[in-house]
Amino acid sequence: MVFLNIVHTTFRPLRQLTKLPTINAKLDATRTYVRWASRRPVAIVNEDELYEASDTTRETFAESKKFSSRKSRGRNSTEKTAKTAKTAKTTKATNDVESLATEKKKAFTVLQDNDKIIRSLMIKVKSRKKREKNDNIALEGQRLIQDALRAGVQPKVVLFSNSADIDKLNLPPKTQLYKVPYKTIQLWSTVSSSPGLIGIFETPNIENTAPADDALPLTIICDNVREPGNLGSIMRAAAGVGCEKLILIKGCVDLWDPKVLRSACGAHFRLPIHAFPVWDDVPALISEDSNIIVTDSNFKDEFVSKYDTDMLQPSLGVFDADPESLKSYCINEDSGTETIESEPTSSFKKKMADLLLQLPIVPYYTLDYTKKETVLVLSGETEGLTFDSLNLLKERKGIRINIPLVNGVDSLNAGVAFGIVTFEIKRQFIKKQSTL
Questions:
Q1: Which helix (H) or strand (E) holds 197?
Q2: In percent, how much of the chain has pLDDT > 70?
Q3: Nearest to residue 137, comparing CAs of 252, 225, 260?
Q4: Are residues 381 and 263 in the same domain?
C-alpha cells in the first residue's frame, strides 16, 4: 500500500505536464484571435449621449495647436519679435519727427578720446596767459553757461558728454557742439567731479554791464587780492548787496580763473567790473567828492591810546569832520609819500606801516555811509595794501575802518570782512529810506 502511494505521488506531476500544451494552445488561439478580429463596434446604442451634436473639429484643432512643434513655436516667436521691433521703430520715428526742429539746431560732432580738436580748444583757455592771448574763457557747468547766455554772451564751442544737458540750454544755432567721452571732459576739468559740460566763450566786456536799479552808491576796489576763493566771495557779496561797480586793480588774481568763477556763482555778469586798471586810472572811475575808506583788521594796542569813546557812537559822521581834527587819531604825522620801491624790503615795510598809521581808524559801525558815495578799498589777507593805494587814500583823506574782534582772533577772511561792512552800509540805507 505504501508502495502504491509512492508511485502515485511520483507520476502525478507527469500527468500535469501533458496538459501544458493545451494551455499554450489556448493562449496562442487567443492571441491569434486578437490579430484578425476587428474591435470596431457594429453599432452604438447611446450615440447621442456619448457625443455632442455640434461639430468639434475646430476645437480639436485648437487643442492640437497648443502642442505645436518646436519649429512652429520658433517661427511664431520670431514673428512676434519682428512685430515688436517694428512698433518700436515706428514710435522712435514719430518721436524723431516731433523733435526734428530742435535736433536740426543742435546737430553735433562726435569726437573720440584725446582728439586734436579737444586739445586745441582746451589749451587756449587752460592758463591766464593763454586766455588773455586768445581772448577766450571757459565756463563749466549748467549754471555758469546759463548765466552767460542770459547776459547775452555768445558761446563759440560747447563740449558735452550727455545730450540731455544740451537740451536744457538755449544755444544759438551757430554754436559748435562736440560730444566727447566723459572721461575726456574729466581730464580737462578743474574740479574733481566734472559736470560733463564745458562752454568756450569769447571774453565778454563786463565793464558796460548795467547796475541794478536799486544799486547802492558804493564802489569796491580790490587791491592785491590774490586768493581766487576770496575774490570770488567778494564778487558774489558785491552783487548780492547791490554795489554800483567793482574795480580790480592790476595785481589781483585773474578774473576768469576757474576757482573765481565757481566761488562767484555768476556774479561776473551781474554788475559792472573794471578789470585790472592801474592806480593812476582809478580817480577817473570814482567821483571826486566820494568818501574813501579801507577795511583793516590790524586794530592792535598801538591804536588804543588814540581811541576816543565818543567815536563808538553810531552814525557819528566822521566823513563830514575837518581832516585837521582827525590828526589826534594819527600816531605818526610824517608824510612818507616819497618813492621807496628801490629801498630794501625791511625799510619798505616800515615806511608802509608809517604811512598806514597816518590814516584815522574807527570802528566800521560808527560811520554814516548814506551822506555821500562810498569807495571801499579791500586788500588781500597776506599781501595787504600796496603803496600806491595808501598814497591815494592819504591824498583823498581816506579813513581806516576796523572790525573789532575778540578771543584772540586777529583777522578775518577778506570775503567775510567785506560782507560785514557792505551789509552794514545796506542796513543804513534801508533804515534811512524807511524814515522818509
A1: strand 197-202
A2: 62
A3: 260
A4: yes
Residue 400 is predicted with a pLDDT of 86
Alpha carbon distance 355, 292 (integer Å): 16
Q: Is residue 277 domain-shared with residue 130, that is, in the same domain?
A: no
How far is the C-alpha of 24 from the C-alpha of 33, rounded, in Å?
14
Residue 121 domain boundaries: 109-202
pTM confidence score: 0.66
Residue 411 confidence class, pLDDT cut points 50, 70, 90? confident
Residue 243 belongs to domain with CATH number:
3.40.1280.10
- Under 8 Å CB-to-CB from 408, ≥6 apart: which residues? none
Domain annotation covers residue 196: yes
311 lies in some domain: yes
DSSP string, 338-387: S--TTS-HHHHHHHHHHHHTTS-EEEGGGS-TTSS-EEEEEE-TTT---H
DSSP state of 199: E
Helix (H) or strand (E) holding 50: helix 47-50
Residue 380 lies in a domain: yes
Domain co-membership, 315 together with 184: no
- Torsional sign, CA 388, 394, 398, 399: positive
Q: Is the pLDDT of residue 69 over 60?
A: no
Which of 202, 236, 259 is the C-terminal boundary of a domain? 202
Instruction: Specify if 313 maps to a domain.
Output: yes
Q: How far apart are CA 361 and CA 376, in angstroms?
A: 14
Task: Write the DSSP assignment of 395-418 as a string of letters.
Answer: HTT-EEEE----TT-----HHHHH
HSE-CB at 329 with a 13 A cutoff on CA atoms is: 23
Identify the band that residue 159 occupies on the pLDDT scale cut at 50, 70 and 90: very high
- How many domains, the chain? 2
243 and 219 in contact (C-beta within 8 Å)? yes
Write the CATH number for 150: 3.30.1330.30
More confident residue, 50 or 204: 204
